[in-house]
């Protein structure tokens, strides 16, 4: 599971930036590119640098997999656009060419032709006639079936459709199910294969595409060497093997061995074994995720998109999360959840703050700021999980947000702004730690509850559970006692920004007329609106109008904490019992709809600030310095590469998959 950054991290700091490092980079469409600094990389010993070097190469080799997972025409479209972008013979100042450039930048950003967050298809600002003319001039043949995919709004309108009542599989462009397979068929296929009484079920379906075989029956095409995506997985495996001698510990070498075995066999039991070795490895300075991981892109929440992150421990900041993880049992015991749904024994919860060294696949360029893995319920129950907060990315978001004008526009008064400026960043970090390190790891399913029961609502409910755990505890005196919050007031900054984001400002990410689709956004809306509604009778929080502008006002922070606790108890019950009907009602009632009048107001206030609602990161560039024998003697890092140059280089050097993958 992962945690993405909220729309903004308000809190303006006035101190001048003394650092020459540039945190912000170019803007296009609704995107601002940022850079992150890999603090401490230069000081690492050569062994760790070399390890990171090979791991980041392995990370970048998976790029094409995600493009293909996000839609079966994506690789062909990207390659065609890149050809035009590089070889265009006309005037590069033309408005059509400029529109194509913007479209390509968005395709790169989303690893496909749909918005990375909202899932809706991009509308190109150039015409089909113009494109046909240009391609003819370049002597480039684009398959006829692809033109409507780009230009006809009715074809593949959504990558991952979550609209209640529709056939989510048929109406999603994501390439996890072959064309023509219905939701009912896919669900039946997997229900029939449920390993009934197995207390340690593998995560069925997570590493395959569902297709129809020559007899018309459904079958899985497994992502493995020799199978689907085999060419990319082979390259990744080779690089993981090159990295292996430089691993931090023998245990970490076992992690690599299990992972490469999984890439060779596609065997899900091997994947669980790999996950267990991975989560137990908490001592290594350098760590990585490389594989089929999160299932947000699959409308049925089963099939995992490929991603990778390579990182090393931020030792100082990790002390903070250690305080939480050693007290995990205390938090579990004191939570407002019914005792039937609590873990008797919190096992193997580890948490650390990491410095990201490279982002790839589904973590690039848009990324998570926290990760909690593995996702297997039984592995989590019996072995625990590993949680990370990505310190240098959070830091970069914060630096970019300061001075953006967001809080001046949307925070109700000076006093609240001061509170946020003073405690906002620290409490945000703390909420992320609580969400990842304790929230996702807390609670248990009742015996016999199928972990997939909540289906399309599963991701939203799970994120809500983790967020609520964090919201409830960020206000706990225990945190003051542990020295994690400076005083009993600091948490209010988090409550205010959370409510403001959930009720108002996250709407800047939604286009007029659309509903909320993405799991993390649905979760934030759900929590904020539920608490708003249920606190009405006691006036806990209200929306007030001043000069035509809507603001959140919180009148009773303590009562708000009580409401977060109440909702946490209910959400945990839904998860533990697998109450699909209640999950559906909660999400549909509070997490999906958008009030068009309020929406328009927020959009126009936001527009005047000239900000981009979405952010992503340009990766640093690593270069291996080699001696005459080819042995690595140093690895250097640079931050100069421009966004388009990086993407074109990746397309050239990590070009692992053919146009069509079936
Ligand atoms: Zn999460």
Task: Give an account of the 3D structure.
By secondary structure, the protein is an alpha+beta fold. Helix content is 45%, strand content 15%. It is built from 24 helices and 15 strands. The strands form five sheets. Strands 1-9-10-8-7-6 form a six-stranded mixed beta sheet. The protein has a three-stranded mixed beta sheet with strand order 2-3-13. The radius of gyration is 24 Å and the shape is globular. Residues 8-18 have low confidence and may be disordered.
Please specify the SSE layout and strand pairing.
Blueprint: E1 2-4, E2 24-28, E3 31-35, H1 46-60, H2 63-69, H3 74-87, H4 95-110, H5 128-137, H6 146-151, H7 183-192, E4 208-212, E5 218-222, H8 230-243, H9 250-265, H10 268-280, E6 286-294, E7 305-313, H11 315-326, H12 328-334, E8 349-361, E9 368-373, H13 377-383, E10 385-390, H14 391-401, H15 406-410, H16 414-439, H17 458-474, H18 477-481, H19 491-503, H20 519-534, E11 541-546, E12 549-554, H21 557-577, H22 580-592, H23 596-607, E13 614-618, E14 621-626, E15 632-638, H24 643-653
Parallel strand pairs: 3-13, 8-10
Antiparallel strand pairs: 1-9, 2-3, 4-5, 6-7, 7-8, 9-10, 11-12, 14-15
Bound molecules: zinc ion.
Would you summarize the structure shown here?
By secondary structure, the chain is α+β, with helices and mostly antiparallel strands. It has helices at 46-60, 63-69, 74-87, 95-110, 128-137, 146-151, 183-192, 230-243, 250-265, 268-280, 315-326, 328-334, 377-383, 391-401, 406-410, 414-439, 458-474, 477-481, 491-503, 519-534, 557-577, 580-592, 596-607, 643-653; strands at 2-4, 24-28, 31-35, 208-212, 218-222, 286-294, 305-313, 349-361, 368-373, 385-390, 541-546, 549-554, 614-618, 621-626, 632-638.
